[in-house]
Amino acid sequence: MKQFVWHETDSFLHRLNPLTKLALTVPVAILVSLIFEPLTPLAIAAVATVATWRFGAVPLMGIIRPLGFALLLGFGMFWTGVLYYAGQGADDPSIVPGPLHITEASLLYGLTMVSRTLAIFATSALFVLTTNPIDFVTALIQQARLPVRVGYAVFAAYRFVPLIQEELENVRAAHQVRGGTGGRGLLAQLRQSFGYAIPLLAISVRRAERVALAMDSRGFGARPARTYFRITTVTRSDLVFGVGAMAALAAIVGVPRVLGL
What we know:
By secondary structure, this protein is mainly alpha-helical. It has 2 domains: 2-137 and 235-258, no CATH class; 145-217, no CATH class. Helices cover 68% and strands 0% of the residues. It has 8 helices and no strands. α5 packs antiparallel against α6 and α6 crosses α7. The chain starts with 17 loop residues before the first helix and ends with a helix. The relative contact order is 0.14.
């Protein structure tokens, strides 16, 4: 649940419209899916990481942690891609001695899968770490024309995440006080998880009912027009960021190919 926490500070990326940053992740995902060599996605991941660090004022370790999960996921994709590759070049001679049949094409495919994962995670981290969830929902409502009821339902669900985390700690403390945390093994863990799930479900239902009653008593959605405390707009900085991001992608993809590299 802690992965839902954004890095709260003031920076160039934090002041951008959330939809501008979200729009960057879509062409990157499409682009890296169409590239069949590892260097270009790796360059995209490096540029996104540096941009988040320098223009987003996010500590470098705060960016490396989610990328570490990407490497762990990419490792599984790497060895399965290398060992079970069946595309063009799969019947070429093995480049390593021993019983494993690893060709140059299969190794290149495995490295490409890892670099694709890093590129997607790096650009996603740029969005997640520099975007206030409140501003994101507000931008969806104001700029993307998302229905107010849907937008605020999403935001209310998001707000439940840290509350459930806090309630889980309270339930665990209550079980420890009553001596209900004994036992080891799979069955004990399942029994313990079931003991946590029932009170958390009851607490969540009560909180959801209170939120629904509060919104209904305040006339939420009664009128088509409404005012907003937070206003999100598309500014010149968003245009600069969009043009700069597209130019960087074009340079990463195009310049090496124009130079024959």
